TrEMBL record:
Acidic residues bias locations: 477-486
Positions of transmembrane segments: 289-309
NCBIfam families hit by this protein: sigma70-ECF
Biased composition (Low complexity): 319-334, 376-395, 487-503
Family that this chain belongs to: Belongs to the sigma-70 factor family. ECF subfamily.
The protein, known as: RNA polymerase sigma factor (Sigma-70 family)
Gene3D superfamilies for the chain: 1.10.1740.10, Winged helix-like DNA-binding domain superfamily/Winged helix DNA-binding domain
CDD domains, per database record: Sigma70_r4
Entry-linked InterPro entries: RNA_pol_sigma-70-like (IPR039425), RNA_pol_sigma-70_dom (IPR014284), RNA_pol_sigma70_r4_t2 (IPR013249), RNA_pol_sigma_r2 (IPR013325), RNA_pol_sigma_r3/r4-like (IPR013324), WH-like_DNA-bd_sf (IPR036388)
Domain RNA polymerase sigma factor 70 region 4 type: 115-166
Keywords: DNA-binding, Membrane, Sigma factor, Transcription, Transcription regulation, Transmembrane, Transmembrane helix
Region annotation (Disordered) ranges: 316-395, 464-512
Length: 512
């Protein structure tokens, strides 16, 4: 892509080493290599946020380069940091419907220019990102996947779908002018058509081109998605951005600002890539007793209760006799059981062992233990009953709607929680696992594999704090003429609107 310097993979490795050595000229080399292209990528989200996002991303890269485990992934890491910064700023804005479209430069072929603008608007945000990072910025599928939280296979699949959609739409215009002599069916569809193509006719031609071998060959020969993206002008950064980045990185007077920037973006996974995390409470939770001590206290408490209820010595199995005290109360049995004899008097209780309840056909509930004042009835010193520590609980916050991508919140209550996410077919989730400190929370992203087709999916969470799930449904936003291989839908029933339900099994909903 003309307009910014090309950087080789070997130069990426040298740049990482210079940043780790804290060379004085390393921030300048970092900006000169990637500042313009990162600004162009950030401007595809929001033009007015791009400069500040790139500034903070490069400052974070200079201060946190030691977190990057693989220097070969430097390029994907920088794009991931930029994406993290610009999305963090966008999350503080009032959400708006739709995806912003890039402004296109005036070209001689206005019909093709308008078509590219319209077709890019038909793609989802994720598909456009994959298309731009792959064809405009030169990232490999593995690098695109690392920057967006996808596998290389998922990135390659989305790139193929987005490229085909853009090239088929453009080929309808190009082949309508030059391909009539090569394909009789195409010529018949264009019979009597003069001037620019109507949207309906263009969609019909695009569907024909995707299934015609002759037209597909012509598309590969005359249409290139990378050249079509050249119609989108480069969003160059302001001249002052380079000076701001270098000054923040090397000026000792900017130490406090540099620390604030790196702390604000200090949320990385094990490979060093940024992860979006919700603000966590800084209050410390009181320490709880160890589970082993709690289990021992519970065992002692249950043993003492069994001795009092059954009136027997647990070690020998012999009945215990009541002390000769007229104020000693009788053993309280379950009110659901019928006693064949009236309550014995204190004198009879002294000579007669406590009766054992006769088994009945209906299961009896546990008897209520009654305290005896005599030391003979105790199997040992009465343990001090402590209130057991609350178990770890996983809290979830499902999105109200999903449009290409959405955020699911997870939180840990009472104790730390380790969780694993599993997405059903049609959905991708990132990250797929992690751990949360007690009182903390994280955010994960769930994306639709094929936003052009309506569907339903489910993201399930399992953890030591219980399980939870988010069920999602979405409307397809593809063109009117769907591929005949798509799953059929019942046209007589209305398409379900995006809805979200959350499983309440062993989970709690995040407040707010």
């Amino acid at each position: 892509m003309p307009g910014w310097p090309s950087v080789g993979r070997a130069e990426d490795h040298e740049l990482v080493e210079a940043l780790r050595r804290a060379d004085t000229d390393a921030p300048a080399k970092l900006y000169d290599s990637y500042g313009e292209r990162l600004h162009d990528y950030a401007a595809s989200f929001a033009q007015d946020l791009a400069a500040d996002a790139v500034h903070d991303a490069l400052v974070t890269a200079q201060g946190c380069v030691h977190r990057l485990k693989e220097p070969a992934r430097m390029r994907a890491w920088l794009y991931a940091l930029t994406r993290f910064q610009v999305r963090a700023r966008m999350s503080r804005r009032t959400p708006v419907d739709g995806v912003p479209l890039p402004e296109l430069e005036a070209q001689e072929d206005s019909e093709l220019t308008d078509l590219v603008h319209e077709t890019l608007g038909e793609l989802s945000r994720n598909e456009r990102e994959v298309l731009e990072l792959s064809l405009r910025h030169g990232l490999t599928p593995a690098e695109v996947g690392a920057a967006l939280g996808l596998t290389s296979r998922q990135a390659a699949g989305r790139l193929a779908r987005a490229r085909d959609h853009l090239e088929n739409a453009a080929a309808a215009v190009v082949l309508a002018r030059t391909g009539r002599a090569h394909c009789p069916d195409l010529s018949a569809m264009l019979d009597g058509c003069e001037g620019p193509l109507t949207p309906l006719l263009r969609r019909r031609l695009s569907g024909h081109i995707s299934g015609c071998e002759v037209c597909t060959e012509g598309r590969h020969r005359q249409v290139s998605a990378a050249k079509l993206l050249d119609l989108v002008p480069v969003a160059f950064p302001p001249i002052s951005l380079r000076r701001r980045v270098i000054d923040t990185c090397v000026n000792p007077e900017r130490d406090q600002a540099r620390t604030l920037i790196t702390d604000r973006g200090d949320s990385f996974d094990r490979t060093g890539f940024p992860v979006a995390v919700e603000p966590r409470s800084r209050r410390r939770r009181p320490r709880r007793l160890a589970p082993v001590l709690l289990a021992g206290a519970c065992v002692l408490a249950v043993t003492g209760a069994m001795v009092v209820i059954n009136g027997r010595d647990v070690s020998t199995g012999t009945p215990l006799r009541s002390a000769p005290s007229p104020s000693s109360p009788a053993v309280s049995l379950d009110p659901g059981e019928e006693s064949p004899a009236p309550d014995p008097s204190p004198e009879e209780d002294e000579l007669t062992p406590a009766p054992t309840p006769t088994p009945s056909r209906t299961p009896a509930t546990r008897a209520t233990p009654v305290e005896r004042p005599s030391a003979r009835h105790a199997a040992g010193p009465t343990p001090t009953r402590r209130r057991p520590a609350p178990a770890a609980r996983l809290r979830t916050s499902c999105p109200k709607a999903i449009d290409g991508a959405a955020k699911i919140g997870l939180g840990a209550r009472n104790a730390a929680v380790s969780w694993v996410a599993t997405a059903s077919q049609g959905l991708d989730v990132f990250p797929a696992s992690g751990s949360i400190k007690a009182g903390g929370s994280v955010a994960i992203w769930v994306t639709i594999v094929d936003p052009n087709a309506a569907g339903r999916g489910r993201v399930a969470f399992t953890s030591n704090g219980g399980s939870a799930s988010c069920s999602l449904s979405w409307d397809g936003d593809g063109p009117d003429t769907a591929d005949p291989t798509d799953e059929p839908t019942n046209s007589s029933e209305p398409t379900p609107s995006p809805s979200v339900t959350t499983s309440a099994e062993n989970s709690e909903t995040l407040e707010g």
